[in-house]
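Structure, all three chains, one model.
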Amino acid sequence: MFRMILSEIAGAVGGELCGDADVEITGCAPLESAGPGQIAYVEKGGVKLNADSRPSALIVGKGVETSIDRIEVENPLLAFAQAIELLHPETNPEPGIHPTAVVDDSARIGEGTSIGCLSSVGAGSEIGRNCVIHPSVTIGRNCRIGDDCVIHPRAVIINGSVLGNKVIIHSGTVIGSDGFKYVRDGGGQNLKVKHIGIVRIGDDVEIGVNCAVDRGFLEETVLEDGVKLDNLIQIGHNVRVGAGSVIAAQAGISGSTIIGENVMFGGQVGVADHVKIPDNTVVAAQSGVIASLKSSAVYAGTPAIEIPRWRRMHAALIRLPELVKKVRRLEKKERTVKWT
Amino acid sequence: MFRMILSEIAGAVGGELCGDADVEITGCAPLESAGPGQIAYVEKGGVKLNADSRPSALIVGKGVETSIDRIEVENPLLAFAQAIELLHPETNPEPGIHPTAVVDDSARIGEGTSIGCLSSVGAGSEIGRNCVIHPSVTIGRNCRIGDDCVIHPRAVIINGSVLGNKVIIHSGTVIGSDGFKYVRDGGGQNLKVKHIGIVRIGDDVEIGVNCAVDRGFLEETVLEDGVKLDNLIQIGHNVRVGAGSVIAAQAGISGSTIIGENVMFGGQVGVADHVKIPDNTVVAAQSGVIASLKSSAVYAGTPAIEIPRWRRMHAALIRLPELVKKVRRLEKKERTVKWT
Amino acid sequence: MFRMILSEIAGAVGGELCGDADVEITGCAPLESAGPGQIAYVEKGGVKLNADSRPSALIVGKGVETSIDRIEVENPLLAFAQAIELLHPETNPEPGIHPTAVVDDSARIGEGTSIGCLSSVGAGSEIGRNCVIHPSVTIGRNCRIGDDCVIHPRAVIINGSVLGNKVIIHSGTVIGSDGFKYVRDGGGQNLKVKHIGIVRIGDDVEIGVNCAVDRGFLEETVLEDGVKLDNLIQIGHNVRVGAGSVIAAQAGISGSTIIGENVMFGGQVGVADHVKIPDNTVVAAQSGVIASLKSSAVYAGTPAIEIPRWRRMHAALIRLPELVKKVRRLEKKERTVKWT
């Protein structure tokens, strides 16, 4: 078990120590159930302890009142995230290639990198330094993976894909699959159009579980620096997702759509093909974007409209049966009035 | 081929034999195409045979009229499901660890359990008795898997996950992946918040193909006893799904949402984060639940409302163009009337 | 690098050469960025070159005006797709079974077929000729796979599945998983109903990444010839998808639904169970089909209605707040009029 005293943690997270500097901390826990030796955090408001809650210390925002030993910071979650990294360090495998992994002789594996059991790396691929390639990962031919990347079990990185540094790919995700494009041949059959583009992923990108990121047709599919994708997301061919954009689970982006920077999509959002989304746009969960959005606002609904209008529309919609009755009543009255 | 006589089946499923006790049955089939040696079932109503349909016997509800040899039961599908198990027993692999599997020395594998080819089990994990771990399964470190579990090819059980007894995990599903949580650091970048919680799965839980069940942040993500998930479902971090709840394909449950017992969700349902769903609630397919539901009713739409209201609303909506015309006509008339 | 002269390409794609027959072509590229040695295509309209665009040749439709050496054809994308195949041929692995693959002694592997590293093929399975089984594919027992198929890394083909010729299965897709069917037993528990049907896939079918195609319950789940599925699609048990139908990403088809030929579904479409969809039907993205469709039209919305009606409905819906105001004004006026 890991051990730090509170003053060490305060120093590491850049916070102000209030209380006993020598409290010994062995782990992080939620406020509701933290016990002796554990540190919890309070985002805002007062400290509400459960009957079972006996944290040894807290990380709190400025001005949170409590008699518990604590570290005061500007951003409690940020400091707590740092405390988690300190108190619960990752147990990484030893660098090196597991004997059951199948690594092509022409592949180059950087210093400090581990290749887990039952993984494979194809001809011509290069993996940078200090990467963790977990068990049962499949990396194809001529891929380039930067430094400090983590590829989780059963991810598939297909031929020619390029990943930056500090990229995290979660289990079951497939990078570089063919896009969905056919052309009718003379006989009326759909002929597959071969894709010769690639996927290019920037630095600090994280992609969740069981996603699909299709390679470009002739061009590249691009996820810029800092893009974060949740689970079960579809990214079509030739899509570009701008730096810092965050997409929630089960969203789907159709081919050739260009998404700006710092965009946020809720879960199950769908975006049509060849659409442009401006920087800083927010699209609410389950919305459908079927045409380019003009300005960086908050959108909702299918087709997506600006959310204040969507709210008014929906408020009226929910009372639509009453509106129908009102109109019926007016029509009845109308028949009894003497029109001139 | 397996063989039983009708009276044996009747005894095993607890039904009443009507007809020839010695009819030999070798398998189950649909009523429309059952042939000699096969048994079919009839849920309710009359027995409608196709030209090709020559079942040797039937399992029927009380009072179904037919001259075919049969077993009468209260619940024909239940009895038929039992007959399938008898007549089409699973061919399980021999217990033991396949030579190509990579099982850490510190892992403990129960009696009667088989570990398929090209699977791996990490350090400190425990697998109970009479489990079938199919080929190419990845089990991480410190997982605990109960007795009589079946893990299908390419499922991934990540470090620390806990599974009860008789749990079935289908191919491609990932249990225990990181949740989707970031905090803005000083430089405006999204910093990953490390997850130290786990996934805890009860007894008799079945999870379909290519699902994602994220681990808790500090807490546990919990699927209680008897939960059934279909394919391609997203379960966010800290979610709790109550006992006996059933969720159809492609639904997504956002983080920290609490779902009661015996809840039913249709396909592609989305539920927002930090929402509470009461016991016995039903949510229709494609609906979006954006706030806690007060009572256990049937809901539909986005945002989800009680289905009688949704039906009235939708009936009015579909006639909205006509309503617009009516109002236009009233406005015209209004302009011609002499108001006092 | 591959090299062809323009007249060779013109001959191969059946087009008319206009310009220098001997221009040397080494690859295909998008018009916007094609450089020396590259050929691009122009679907229709004029040829718009970027500053950086210096294609050595073009494939164009009849009557497209340009001074660049070119091949004129009826269908530029079709010809270009053929040119891609010529200039960017697949690098297939050598036929044979990789030493780390686990192939049961009773499995039969056709001539010219390669089985990649860390793949497995179960007892009784037959794989045809000239197939590429990529690394880490799992094929169960008693599967039948035709000739010229490509199974991408981490696909899973479960026991008894039947695939035709020229079938492409992408990474992470699972063919033949159990359907989602339970029956309440006497104690109120959901008892799993075992599935003994299979999946049958025709010729020229392509299935994208991380899809789930459930086996039939007693019957077969069928994807007929030429069906194309995009990524992350759910196909329930007993579903039949007619020849030539094309389904976009994240759509879900519930159990026992019958889809006609040449149907097109947009992304995230959901279809209820036991529904019939006529030939040539088109359903727009995110729509929900909850009952059988009568005629082969274009549908949108949830529940899906014919798109001209949906458009009128939606145009009215978006102005609903204004309609509410109009009715309110009429009501006010009404109270001031002298009714007779």
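Chain B is about 15% helix and 30% strand.
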